[in-house]
Design brief:
The protein is of the alpha+beta class. The chain contains five helices and six strands; from the N terminus they run βββαβαββααα. Strands 1-4-6-5 form a four-stranded mixed beta sheet. The chain has a two-stranded antiparallel ribbon with strand order 2-3. A hairpin with an 8-residue loop joins strand 5 and strand 6. Helix 3 packs antiparallel against helix 4 and helix 4 packs antiparallel against helix 5. The two termini are about 30 Å apart.
């Protein structure tokens, strides 16, 4: 892993992973007078925690659920990763990597020079997977690696496509009904 860059104050940067999900949850003090804890409970909390962990697989920092993407797509730049079914959930949903915020002056959060291109290329590759065309998806992820060498998402998804093709699966192993991929 690369050494953390120093921040403006001379301190090393902290590398974290974040999972964002939008859902109704129960938040408050839980326990008794002898042991009290402020916590959040519910399916939405579980999904956010699972998304945080999924970042490690993809080599990403901020992974968001389709519930965040659906509400914020005009204000953010994201790229689709893949459909997942997290532990404790019966249905699958699309997850995205948050690349940038559209209306910000913060250099760490704003859209960078080639972010739009990366998002569009990843969307195209994702569409090939949705269609069950793993050979085309492989070519699309290789094209991403040609333009963005070392992209961890493209590397991960290329390996997934190769495995699906080797297993001769007609579509990714998931439920497809009523869940279209959204364009980032």
């Amino acid at each position: 892993m690369a050494q953390p860059r120093a921040s403006a104050e001379g301190r090393p940067r902290i590398h974290i992973r974040i999972g964002l999900n939008c859902a109704n949850v129960l938040v408050g003090n839980v326990g008794s007078s002898s042991r009290l804890s402020y916590t959040a409970l519910g399916d939405g909390v579980n999904v956010a925690a699972r998304l945080e962990g999924i970042n490690k697989q993809f080599g990403t920092t901020i992974c968001i659920s389709d519930s965040i993407y659906d509400q914020m797509q005009a204000d953010i730049l994201a790229r689709p990763l893949k459909r997942v079914q997290v532990k404790g959930r019966k249905t699958e949903f699309m997850i995205y990597e948050l690349l940038a915020l559209r209306a910000t002056d913060d250099p760490e959060l704003r859209v960078r020079d080639r972010d739009e291109q990366l998002s569009a290329m990843t969307y195209h590759a994702s569409q090939q997977i949705e269609a069950g065309d793993f050979a085309s998806a492989e070519r699309a992820y290789r094209a991403i690696l040609d333009d963005f060498p070392g992209d961890p998402v493209a590397k991960f998804m290329l390996k997934e496509c190769e495995e699906w093709r080797a297993a001769d699966l007609p579509i990714p192993p998931r439920k497809r009904a009523g869940q279209p991929t959204r364009k980032p």
